[in-house]
Structure formats: structure tokens, C-alpha cells
Amino acid sequence: MSEVAAAPLEKLAGAAFDEWVRSRLALFERAAEEALPPADRIPARLHRAMRYAALGGGKRVRPLLAFAAAELAGGGEAERPSLAAHGVALAVEFVHVYSLIHDDLPCMDDDVLRRGKPTVHVAFDEATAMLAGDALQAEAFRVLADMPLAAELRMQLTSMLAHAASTSGMCGGQAIDLAAVGRQLTIDELEQMHRMKTGALLAAAVRMGAVAAGADAAAVAAAAAYGRALGLAFQIVDDVLDVEGTAESLGKTAGKDARENKPTYVSVLGLAAAKARAAQLHREALAALAPLDARARRLRELADYIVGRTS
Amino acid sequence: MSEVAAAPLEKLAGAAFDEWVRSRLALFERAAEEALPPADRIPARLHRAMRYAALGGGKRVRPLLAFAAAELAGGGEAERPSLAAHGVALAVEFVHVYSLIHDDLPCMDDDVLRRGKPTVHVAFDEATAMLAGDALQAEAFRVLADMPLAAELRMQLTSMLAHAASTSGMCGGQAIDLAAVGRQLTIDELEQMHRMKTGALLAAAVRMGAVAAGADAAAVAAAAAYGRALGLAFQIVDDVLDVEGTAESLGKTAGKDARENKPTYVSVLGLAAAKARAAQLHREALAALAPLDARARRLRELADYIVGRTS
């Protein structure tokens, strides 16, 4: 993984992937801009805080995964799969952003820097930050409910997102994380925590993108297996970057895990073994896609990108 | 309203209503008990906090409204309408409970007493309280998504709940409330704030109960108008009780609004005019039900109960 980690995005996947990412990010930003309440609508301060947190920042890994998974339905570069994945991309990113806002609050991680900017409670205030997170979660479900898709599909998506955000997913993982500070975790416990805290929503992004676009059952199952492996790989790379990265490259405080005595893949396995585990999960994610044809190309490229990222 | 405010529940509506309330509350508690993750499942502390906040306390006004509205579909005391309203009752109450947990946090109202017990962040800790609220919101949408109803109905319910919980509803009202502390509000601004903060979710409970049970369009429209009037009346009575009640009768800190310099109906209109406005909204709520037959009986009785309550 180490040579991969050093390679810039362009070298990994070439101009076509780069262009695909750029176009999907532009699509996402426009959709998010429109979906969020305007900054001048009352309560304006709350709306400004939501937009501050949700717009114009972040790697948008979850939206990109949703867009890539939507291509499994076929149609390649056509608009249909992307349009179907629109609402999914917004909903999973809004849930992710809400969790970041709450996670950064003084009663949680007490962090002041996120996506290269002051965190929401620093730029606004704690109460507004909490409400902005609360409102973004409601917004996520509103977006799914109001998607121009068959009700049966929207219900499946809503159920998937609710489970991924619940105590069997993201919220549960964060609670285990809280309880784990200063404790020695086994590698199994650590993996369980990360699968819930980060993996559940990443995997949901992939599966929901495929389902929303109408991919067949075999493709959805392959996407789900890919999402599970890649979701965990993502978090291990995060742990590695927290040790190897800088605040400047990450856009958030570096070296926090060790300082806060949090169990991570690096603290439990060591740096080399953590990287090896990420590489293994990378291979597992690609193997899950093996039965699929070129429609899985963007998912393959995203796996390389996610495991190889340096920020 | 003053004589109504002094009358106990039994005198208002008689034994049949009393028995109906008891049976629906028992139904609700059993359903909530089953719907929430077990207290011994990991992350146990988070699950205990969610159950501590959501079980065995509160007036359950929103669930009762949902059950009463479900009877508009006909079937009287039959099980069908209640079963259909089950998920609605759980979902709206989970959203309500999450908002109470977050509202009580130090960065918001900083309160230590709720439903006669220490607030969640006092009984557990701030981080657990925040996560318990976050998880209860996700749980609310999970319950709706997994209801045994047609997908089209579940989608309508999900959309209604998401809007009621959003910045155009509950979260928006709380943000306006925050911004209003120490400011002079006009009666229109105050009404708008209360309609969003409390009214939106109460009105959603009524409308969602009617929709879930399959009430016809005229009944749903009547229920919606009833819910809007009663939702505002509920908050005015809350403002009155904050002045006239005691911590013992309320199960929460009394006299808070004045101490925190919050604008309320009492501070803006005075006590007598606030009571008169509640009585007027009570009449409006009943007038909205006028076209409906005996199926609206429980909604009528609940209006008397809600406006006449002393806690």
C-alpha cells in the first residue's frame, strides 16, 4: 500500500476517472446547494450553519460511491443512473456531515478544525451546531422521501439509511468509540467498532446507489460486499493518515488519536500491519466486483482512490 | 379556561375516555419497549440512555393524538386503526424525546429535571445524551420505514415526519427560540416560533395517525386543521403552566421561561389573554372536527384534556 499511498489521484486512474469525479462532484454540489434551505430564510443562522458545514468541502467519498454504484444499473455515462443516485448522494452525505458536526462538539471530540475550516460550533455556537446536525439528519430523510422514484424503492432506501445511522451502525460505533478511550481493544472489537462507526454508512452509500438506480440483485449483492470491505479499509487508512498526515494535508487536526489515547488500527496492529490490512481489504473489495463487467469500473477506480488517498 | 385547567382528567371525559387512554398508553409502552434496542445489547450504555429517556414517562400526548386520529378511519375500538397508528405513535414520540434530550443539554437549556427524573446528560453524560438523541431520530425513521403498510403510505408518513422535524418545523422553531432569548417578540413572531417548535410535530402526529389508518381525504384535512390549532394551544398551555405550575406537578423545572428571559405567551400577552387565546384555539380545534361523526370522539376528548391539563 505504501507506494499506492504516495501516488496522486491522476496517476492512479487517469484522466477519464478524474473527469468523472469532477463532473459528479459538480453535480453533487449543485444538488446540495438546491436541497438545503436558503441562507436567508428564517431561521437564517441555523440555515447558514447547515450550509457552512455541508457545502464546498470534504472529499465527498460517500456521494462518489453512490454515483459509482448507480452505474451498475447500466447506462454508463448516461444521466439516468446519476439522477437516481442524486438523492442517495445527498442523504448519505447529510448524515455524514451531521455526524461530523456533533462529533466535533466539546462534549465529544472537542475539535476546532474540520475540512480546513473552523468547526461549526467555533464558527457559530454550540447550540446552533447541535441543531444544525439534528436538522441535517431530518433533511437526509426528507430528501429520500421526496425523491422522484417508486415508493417501494424509496422505502428500501429509507430503511437502509435509518439502519446505517442507528445504534447498529454509525451512532452505535460512535458510542463504542467513546467507551473505548483509554482501554485496550482486541483487533476484533476494533474492527466491529469501525465497521459500525464508518463502515455502515459507506457500505450503505454503495448499496443504496445501486438500488436507487435499479441494478439487479447480483450487482447489488456484489456492491454490498465491496462496500463492506471498502468501508473498513477507509477507516484503517484514516487511522494511518492520522499518524502520517499533517493538519495541512488532512484539513483536520492530525495525531489526535494517539494524543487522546484512542485505540486505532495503528495502535493495536502497528503501522505496517495496519497498511497490510488495508491492502488486503482493498483486494477483497475488488474481488467482490470480479463477476461484474465494465459497469463496475468507477467502483474499482474509487477503491484505488480511497485506499491510496493521502488526505 | 381557568375552570377547565382545574378539572382533573376523569371529570372531563369520563371513564370511557380514561379507559381508552390507559389502554392506548399500555399499547404504546409495550410497542416502545419492543422497538428500542435491548438494554444489554452493545453499545449498552447508549441503549440504556435511549430507554431511560423514552420509556415509562411523559404524557405521551403525541402518541395519544396519533391513536385518536387513527379512529377517523372507522372501526371504533377495533384493533386495526390502533395497529396502523402504532408506528406513527412510536416515530413521533421518538422524535419528541430526542428533541427533549438535546434541549436539556448544557449548550441549550441546561436543565437537570425532566419527566420527574434527572435529565439524560445528568444520569449518563453529555456525549451519551447527544448520541441517544441522534439515535432516537434515526430510530423514528427506521420504525416508519419498517411498518407493515403499503410503501406509498409509508413514504407519505416519512415525508410528513421529516418535514415536521426539519428547519421548517421543530428544529427551525428551536433555532428561533434560541435567537429570541432576551429579545422582545411580536405576538406574530411568537406564534410562528411556537407553531414550528411544538405545533409542527403535534399536528404531524394527528395527520400521520389519520393517514396511516386510511382515513378519507376530508377526515385527514379536518384532522390537520385540528392538529394545527391544538398544537399551538398546547404550547400556550405550557407557557401558562410554566408560570402557574410547580416542579412537582410538572415533572420539570418550573418558572424557567421568565428566569431565562424567554418570550412566552404569558410575557407577551399576559396571563389572562394567554388563557383566552388557548380557549379560542381549543374552540377552533373542535370546530375543525364539526363535520366528522363520533369517530372524532377521542380527538375531541383529547382537545379538552390537552387544554385542561395541569401538568
Helix and strand arrangement:
The structure is a homodimer of 311-residue chains.
Chain A: H1 2-6, H2 9-35, H3 44-54, H4 61-70, H5 79-104, E1 113-114, E2 117-118, H6 120-123, H7 126-145, H8 151-165, H9 170-180, H10 187-213, H11 217-244, H12 247-250, H13 256-259, H14 265-269, H15 271-288, H16 297-308
Antiparallel strand pairs in A: 1-2
Helix pairs in contact in A: 2-5, 2-16, 3-7, 4-5, 4-10, 4-16, 5-7, 5-10, 8-10, 9-10, 10-11, 11-15, 11-16, 15-16
Stretches with pLDDT under 50, minimum 5 residues of chain A: 1-12
Sheet having the most strands of chain A: 2 strands, antiparallel
Mean pLDDT of chain A: 90
| Backbone CA Rg of chain A | 18 Å
Strand segment tally of chain A: 2
Specify which chain pair forms the largest interface: A-B, 51 and 52 residues
| Quaternary structure classification | homodimer
Total domain units of chain A: 1
Query: Can you say what the CATH homologous superfamily of chain A is?
Result: Farnesyl Diphosphate Synthase
Structural class of chain A: mainly alpha
CATH fold name of chain A, please? Farnesyl Diphosphate Synthase
Which of globular, elongated, flat, extended, rod-shaped describes the shape of chain A?
Answer: globular
What's the tally of helices of chain A?
16
Instruction: State the share of residues found in helices of chain A, binned by percent.
Output: over 70%
Give the N-to-C terminal Cα separation of chain A.
15 Å
Order of helices and strands of chain A: HHHHHEEHHHHHHHHHHH
